[in-house]
Design brief:
The structure is a single chain. The protein has a single domain, classed as Porin (Beta Barrel). Helix content is 7%, strand content 55%. The chain is built from four helices and 23 strands. The strands form four sheets. It has a 16-stranded antiparallel β-barrel. The relative contact order is 0.14.
Length: 426
């Protein structure tokens, strides 16, 4: 008799839809397991005062190169956001997010560009450990600092702050690994976090052995040792509290890992670095709300990096090893005023003010006070469509003759999204 009733229910569902199924047949309804899906497009029009082929060769001496335009590391080609004069399709970002069961959620962020597709983030997060604890595992943006966890489309400016991009690269600390966070049971928000990561950041960290190509027939091939993975360890503390209509968020961060940086096949100045590295960070965000849509937000971050190891360079065609130490520091500070739910205006100041580089104990007298000024005006038709006009004046980059360049850049950015997208953190 039960079989007959179930068969009748199945027939009814075919005729009138799955909603008429009895509860025992609706337990595994596909609609209950459909993830939130969103697609985000980011494109820009850029007018820069230097040509694209010139921008590719500019650098911050002793700090970083390849911050403008496209650049190559061996067979790999990288393009920054807003890389070229004219139109840029920076990326399309596909986001999938869903609860797995009462114990886990899973999120995936996939980046599509004209150069290919990559998994930007793919991770699970626990939801039922209790005692204020949470574990995340997979590939994700580290919670180091304030900006690193945020995706590009959530930034207040079209480009990454100078200290972030020069120390950590355009993707920041985005790694495979595991994260543990604990939130204290106090009236004032206090969160402590630890992360154990693979350590593959190309700008600062890395754990692969570096093969130094034999350029001179009389020279023997050289190879740096690989670092045992995981090789990057991060710790941080964050706290927040409210004073009337003002929210204050502060944090301290620390990262320690191995550096295996391979630029041995660069065209301009081939080199490689094998070192032990540390980064110290501090961040402060203060946001005052005038009403539901109007606010003033001050955001600042400071970083210092310390590298101690060996540099391999080949000024004469043969790679030679030298002792290398770097102590460098920089910061950014920005102020953004939201007039209402549609209009925002903001200004940002970037600087790398310390640049102490020693090779075999000798100071290389690298330039300091490498800075940039930015201003932006933003209009949003809704939370799904944003249009931003930004002006940059950079005094941070030098040409191949070590002459400081003054670069003016105008960026018109368009960011459009569709679908369900989770709320961003403060």
């Amino acid at each position: 008799m039960k079989k007959i009733l179930l068969s009748s229910a199945l027939c009814a569902s075919m005729a009138f839809g799955a909603d008429v199924l009895p509860e025992e047949l609706r337990t595994f309804a596909q609609s209950k397991f459909m993830p939130d899906i969103s697609l985000i497009m980011d494109m820009s029009y850029v007018n820069r005062s230097v040509k694209d082929d010139e921008a590719e060769h500019l650098e911050m001496p002793g700090v970083a190169h390849g911050l403008l335009g496209s650049h190559s590391h061996g067979s790999d080609n990288h393009a920054t956001y807003n890389a070229s004069n004219g139109f840029n399709l920076n990326y399309a970002e596909l986001v999938l997010s869903s609860s797995v069961d009462p114990f886990f959620t899973m999120d995936g962020v996939f980046h599509f560009s004209e150069n290919g597709v990559e998994i930007e983030e793919l991770y699970f997060t626990t939801t039922a450990l209790g005692f204020g604890s949470r574990v995340k595992g997979g590939k994700f943006n580290s919670n180091f600092g304030y900006l690193n966890e945020q995706h590009h489309h959530y930034w207040d400016f079209a480009d990454m702050p100078l200290v972030y991009e020069s120390f950590l690269g355009m993707h920041g600390i985005n790694e495979k690994g595991v994260q543990f966070q604990w939130t204290a049971p106090t009236s004032t928000y206090l969160m402590l976090g630890l992360e154990v990561l693979q350590g593959e950041n190309e700008q600062m960290f890395g754990n692969e052995a570096i093969e130094l190509t034999r350029i001179n027939a009389a020279a023997s091939p050289q190879k740096t040792s690989a670092a045992d993975a995981p090789s990057l360890f991060i710790a941080y503390a964050k706290t927040s509290y409210d004073i009337d209509n003002t929210t204050i968020l502060a944090g301290l961060s620390y990262a320690q890992g191995k550096s295996r940086i391979d630029h041995s096949e660069d065209m301009d100045s081939p080199h490689a670095i094998s070192a032990n590295s540390k980064i110290y960070g501090a961040d402060l965000v203060i946001k005052h709300y005038f009403d539901s849509y109007s606010s003033l937000k001050w955001q600042s971050e400071w970083m210092m990096r310390d590298m101690d190891g060996t540099q391999y360079a080949n000024p004469g065609g043969v790679f030679k090893a030298s002792d290398l130490t770097k102590k460098q520091a920089g910061l950014y500070t920005q102020l953004v005023y939201a007039y209402d739910q549609n209009w925002k205006i903001g200004a940002r100041y970037d600087t790398v003010y310390q640049n102490d580089v020693k090779v075999n104990g000798q100071d290389r007298n690298m330039p300091t006070d490498m800075d940039k000024y930015s201003a932006m005006l933003e209009y949003s038709t809704s939370e799904f469509a944003r249009f931003r006009l930004q002006y940059d004046r950079s005094n941070a980059l030098f040409n191949e003759n070590d002459v400081r360049q003054k670069i003016d850049t105008l960026i018109f950015q368009v960011n459009i999204s569709i679908g369900a997208h989770g709320a961003h953190s403060f």
